């Protein structure tokens, strides 16, 4: 019998697109095209990210063939492509690249990245909000990569974004959730907003923890592509994300500073010697 609180079909949306997988997978840095294809299949991901600057190859050399690989993988697994503006340092640069992505890939989706610091690759909140506003007006479904700052998140929502992608930690760091309190605050203060934790997750447990906080989905790349066994790691993250989501829906037990007996004896008969 299905319990009333069970969710046999747990879906979510980006724009008008309904999705059931809450695992968004990056496509950079895999040891071979075949390992990428197998990892996509193992992940069950329905959204694949790709960076336009890398996809288009080295200037003067031409197409490096990467875009075709991703097109085929997306087609074979029924996934959607989410181009990103990785490597952009200004709103103008990001907006220009987003329009190029729409022309090349025939999608209004764009993961908006505008780097503000070269060491941490932290997003520039001012350029990010400016670019987001321009792209929303141009008809894009903008998914901005941002920090976990609540005020910046609100400014992006004011600009017209419906999905936010706060970081767990700096890109590629593998540190996991640096500030669970901030993410918990975002979830509490923005209850109706789709939140996708993006960047810095290095282990399946990190992804499970993000989902347990009530995040809607997780996006990651390096933890899978740079592992010794990308296919196995993709499968591990898939299961962790599903487990974290189920735990959140079921309701996690409250933490306590003191021990709480699982079988209390108060009011129960017991024997004395």
Could you explain the architecture of this structure?
By secondary structure, the chain is an alpha/beta fold. It contains 10 helices and 10 strands. The protein has helices at 33-43, 52-55, 66-77, 91-105, 125-137, 150-158, 180-189, 204-212, 222-225, 230-250, and strands spanning 12-14, 17-19, 23-26, 47-51, 80-84, 109-112, 141-146, 163-166, 194-198, 217-220. An 8-stranded parallel β-sheet has the order 5-4-3-10-9-8-7-6. A two-stranded antiparallel sheet has the order 1-2. It is globular. It starts with 11 loop residues before the first strand and ends in a 23-residue tail after the last helix. Residues 57-62 have low confidence and may be disordered.
List the helices and strands and how they pair.
Layout: E1 12-14, E2 17-19, E3 23-26, H1 33-43, E4 47-51, H2 52-55, H3 66-77, E5 80-84, H4 91-105, E6 109-112, H5 125-137, E7 141-146, H6 150-158, E8 163-166, H7 180-189, E9 194-198, H8 204-212, E10 217-220, H9 222-225, H10 230-250
Parallel strand pairs: 3-4, 3-10, 4-5, 6-7, 7-8, 8-9, 9-10
Antiparallel strand pairs: 1-2
Helix pairs in contact: 1-10, 4-5, 8-10
């Amino acid at each position: 019998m299905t319990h009333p609180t069970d969710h046999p079909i747990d879906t979510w949306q980006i724009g008008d697109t309904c999705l059931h997988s809450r695992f968004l997978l990056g496509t950079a840095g895999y040891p071979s095209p075949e390992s990428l294809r197998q990892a996509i299949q193992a992940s069950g991901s329905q959204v694949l990210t790709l960076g336009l600057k890398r996809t288009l190859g080295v200037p003067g050399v031409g197409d490096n063939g990467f875009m075709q690989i991703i097109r085929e993988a997306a087609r074979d697994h029924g996934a959607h492509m989410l181009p990103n503006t990785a490597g952009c340092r200004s709103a103008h640069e990001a907006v220009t690249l987003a329009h190029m992505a729409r022309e090349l890939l025939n999608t209004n989706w764009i993961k908006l990245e505008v780097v503000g610091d070269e060491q941490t690759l932290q997003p520039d909140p001012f350029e990010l909000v400016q670019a987001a506003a321009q792209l929303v007006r141009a008809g894009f479904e903008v998914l901005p990569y941002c920090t976990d700052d609540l005020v910046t998140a609100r400014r992006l929502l004011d600009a017209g974004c419906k999905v936010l992608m706060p970081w767990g930690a700096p890109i590629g760091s593998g540190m996991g959730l640096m500030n669970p309190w901030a993410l918990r605050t975002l979830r509490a203060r923005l209850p109706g907003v789709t939140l996708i934790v993006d960047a810095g997750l290095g282990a399946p447990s990190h992804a499970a923890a993000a989902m347990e906080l009530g995040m809607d989905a997780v996006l990651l790349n390096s933890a899978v592509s740079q592992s010794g066994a990308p296919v196995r790691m993709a499968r591990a993250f898939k299961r962790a994300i599903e487990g974290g989501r189920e735990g959140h829906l079921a309701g996690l037990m409250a933490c306590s500073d003191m021990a709480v007996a699982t079988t209390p004896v108060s009011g129960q008969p017991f024997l004395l010697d």
